[in-house]
């Protein structure tokens, strides 16, 4: 049958030592909508552009920034459907951990498990890598009376902890902007402000509460801003 | 013949002021025949985390090996030492996995957090139901005798020496009234910066 011919892994090495499918996946991510994550002293902010291709789209019926557990949230750049699968997996892994250990999952443990899933799809037969990079923001209550944490997961399965980073369209400029603007003593309020400014750098058109999503993670847990809250922050940058 | 009293045994853990006592009898027997007199049923996971596994001796050994395996994997993966509450949750989960073909042990867990000085005690049935009392936990064939003795000798906030006295009296007198537990006892007193193990003599029968 036809499927027998495709049961080998598509991620086989090229002569130059690269895995081309992963390179292409990263290209899919780089052409996706921009997203930004910034770690402050008292929390983490995630922000993303949510441009609709037509005015007929129903705003706020689906979300890019998703809660994984009460204390961990996630956003992506790249292919939405691939993201949804990873959100479901991450949520289940967090609950499995809670059931086994009676304890909420540390952010770094969740990241390792999600990254492991992404890696499996680069070394299995008949599948392709995920076309998303994830930003995972969490609050670890058990470390130093609570500390914020920000990770990025790539299609290859590699993960990195960041103080601040940008992904998707225009990410190079975004990162340069953050390198200049970031400082260790940033408070969450300022970090949200900076995140919005970073998104604004590459934004086509007017930023409104309907085409920007923001989420924060602090000692009270993870939550997504309502459009009204986003609007307040947007008016402040004008 | 009841499978939980085939080998016999007794374990106890008791809370003091900022110290913890764990103790076990030393008999290994097969029904009425005593085979060995140096078979403790209380094991160290960390200097400040102990688990007692009274019941069928084969399961004592197997569960000990399996839980040590799980703890090592956890600590390598998480890059931090395991907390007593988490250990108990993990052990409970392991036992419930075998809900319809269980391990025949009724464990107790005792831990002292050396930084916060908080003490954790819990006891479980053979399928992992966890109870966390504030004073003492007991297990084994001499369970009822142990409970009676503990109720009598326990008082809150004992210092290490008083605690040693209480645990010794509770264990010795309980196992002396149980045919399948005894043949000596091993008692460990755990304080934040010092851990002492002593063996004492019970009725040697």
UniProtKB/TrEMBL annotation, chain B:
Sorted UniProt keywords: Cytoplasm, Nucleus, Proteasome
Tell where it localizes.
Answer: Cytoplasm; Nucleus
What's the superkingdom here? Eukaryota
What processes in GO biological process is this protein linked to?
proteasome-mediated ubiquitin-dependent protein catabolic process
Q: Which GO terms describe its cellular component?
A: cytoplasm; nucleus; proteasome core complex, beta-subunit complex
Q: Which Pfam families match?
A: Proteasome
Q: Which InterPro entries match?
A: Ntn_hydrolases_N, Proteasome_beta_3, Proteasome_bsu_CS, Proteasome_sua/b, Proteasome_suB-type
Major site of localization recorded for this protein: cytoplasm
Q: Which family does it belong to?
A: Belongs to the peptidase T1B family.
Q: Quaternary arrangement and interactors, per the entry?
A: Component of the proteasome complex. The 26S proteasome consists of a 20S proteasome core and two 19S regulatory subunits. The 20S proteasome core is composed of 28 subunits that are arranged in four stacked rings, resulting in a barrel-shaped structure. The two end rings are each formed by seven alpha subunits, and the two central rings are each formed by seven beta subunits. The catalytic chamber with the active sites is on the inside of the barrel.
- Function, in words: Component of the proteasome, a multicatalytic proteinase complex which is characterized by its ability to cleave peptides with Arg, Phe, Tyr, Leu, and Glu adjacent to the leaving group at neutral or slightly basic pH. The proteasome has an ATP-dependent proteolytic activity. Non-catalytic component of the proteasome, a multicatalytic proteinase complex which is characterized by its ability to cleave peptides with Arg, Phe, Tyr, Leu, and Glu adjacent to the leaving group at neutral or slightly basic pH. The proteasome has an ATP-dependent proteolytic activity.
UniProt-recorded name of the protein? Proteasome subunit beta
């Amino acid at each position: 049958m036809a499927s027998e011919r495709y049961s080998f892994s598509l991620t086989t090495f090229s002569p130059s030592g690269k895995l081309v499918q992963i390179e292409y996946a990263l290209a899919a991510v780089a052409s996706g909508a921009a997203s930004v994550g910034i770690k402050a002293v008292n929390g983490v902010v995630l922000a993303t552009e949510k441009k609709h291709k037509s005015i007929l789209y129903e705003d706020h019926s689906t979300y890019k920034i998703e809660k994984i557990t009460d204390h961990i949230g996630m956003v992506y750049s790249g292919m939405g459907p691939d993201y949804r699968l990873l959100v479901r997996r991450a949520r289940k892994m967090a609950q499995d951990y809670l059931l086994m250990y009676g304890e909420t999952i540390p952010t770094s443990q969740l990241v390792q498990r999600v990254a492991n899933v992404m890696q499996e799809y680069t070394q299995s037969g008949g599948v392709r890598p995920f076309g998303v990079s994830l930003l995972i923001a969490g609050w670890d209550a058990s470390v130093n009376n609570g500390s914020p944490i920000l990770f990025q997961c790539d299609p290859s399965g590699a993960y990195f902890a960041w103080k601040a980073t940008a992904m998707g369209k225009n990410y190079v400029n975004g990162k340069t902007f953050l390198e200049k603007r970031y400082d260790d003593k940033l408070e969450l309020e300022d970090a949200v402000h900076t995140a919005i400014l970073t998104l604004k750098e590459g934004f086509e058109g007017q930023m409104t509460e309907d085409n920007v999503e923001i989420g924060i993670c602090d000692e009270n847990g993870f939550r997504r801003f309502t459009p009204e809250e986003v609007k307040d922050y947007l008016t402040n940058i004008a | 013949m009841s499978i939980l009293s085939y080998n016999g045994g007794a374990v106890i853990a008791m809370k003091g002021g900022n110290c913890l006592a764990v103790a076990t009898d030393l008999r290994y027997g097969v029904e009425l025949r005593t085979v060995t007199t140096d078979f403790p049923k209380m094991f160290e996971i960390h200097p400040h985390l102990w688990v007692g596994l009274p019941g069928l001796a084969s399961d004592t050994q197997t569960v000990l090996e399996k839980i040590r395996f799980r703890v090592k994997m956890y600590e390598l993966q998480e890059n931090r030492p395991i907390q007593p509450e988490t250990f108990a949750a993990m052990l409970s989960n392991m036992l419930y996995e075998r809900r319809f073909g269980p391990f025949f042990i009724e464990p107790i867990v005792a831990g002292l957090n050396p930084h916060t000085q908080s003490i954790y005690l819990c006891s479980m049935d053979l399928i992992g139901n966890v109870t966390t009392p504030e004073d003492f936990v007991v297990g084994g064939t001499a369970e009822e005798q142990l409970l009676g003795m503990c109720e009598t000798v326990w008082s809150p906030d004992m210092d290490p020496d008083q605690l040693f006295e209480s645990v010794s009296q509770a264990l010795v007198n309980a196992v002396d009234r149980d045919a399948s537990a005894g043949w000596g006892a091993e008692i460990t007193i755990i304080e934040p910066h010092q851990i002492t193990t002593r063996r004492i003599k019970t009725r040697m029968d």
